[in-house]
Amino acid sequence: SAVISQKPSRDICQRGTSLTIQCQVDSQVTMMFWYRQQPGQSLTLIATANQGSEATYESGFVIDKFPISRPNLTFSTLTVSNMSPEDSSIYLCSVEKGTGGEGYTFGSGTRLTVV
Amino acid sequence: GQQLNQSPQSMFIQEGEDVSMNCTSSSIFNTWLWYKQEPGEGPVLLIALYKAGELTSNGRLTAQFGITRKDSFLNISASIPSDVGIYFCAGRSGSRLTFGEGTQLTVNP
To answer: Of the candidates B82, B3, B78, B69, which has an alpha carbon nearest to the alpha carbon of residue B36?
Structure first.
């Protein structure tokens, strides 16, 4: 399975500002995924990012709020724009390497607090 | 959209006890996954199930993929304090994962 480095691990941000989260993978992967985990909740898929094309967003998530970049097969960024306290969550990057379920790996997450 | 119902929400047990948790879905999945998440970390895969009826073990963990493909359970035998964490089921359809709400496990020594 792949090894994922996600930065920053945590941040405290002022409302109205934006934060960009980076996800670096140790090997090339086709698909990268961004999840949100609200306090005490499960993981919800925000979007799927493929290299060379626009990200595909899930219902309830829009590109203006969560722009994603995928410049190559080992890197992606997620920006949380114009933040409000409701955006306080853990944001997780995930990749799928291989076709089996074992190929699904998660980063350690970015714990975001908006004040 | 697809929904997974995971139960129980939380469990408080004594060290040495066995634990069971399960997930049910309104939809069919072609893969069921069980993850454990500890504080400050992302989910870590415990067991992957690929076929209806499949029963798979990983040490003290045993999981089964339901015959209807709409449910799965995870058993932990002889629990130890380091089993503490949140356990999530996830159903895989295509490349998308849908997660259950999680089971918070507390093990008292």
So the answer is: B82
Q: Is B49 part of the contact surface with chain A (CB cutoff 8 Å)?
A: yes
Report in angstroms the alpha-carbon separations of B103 from A34, A42, B95. Answer: 22, 10, 24
Separation CA A89–CA A17 (nearest Å): 15
Q: Are B46 and B24 in contact (CB under 8 A)?
A: no
> What is the secondary structure of B42-73 as a DSSP string?
--EEEEEE-STT-EEEETTEEEEE-TTSSEEE
Picking from B45, B95, B101, the nearest residue to A42 by CB comes out as: B101
| pLDDT tens-place string over residues B67-79 | 999 999 999 999 9
Beta strand A68-72 with A10-13 is: unpaired
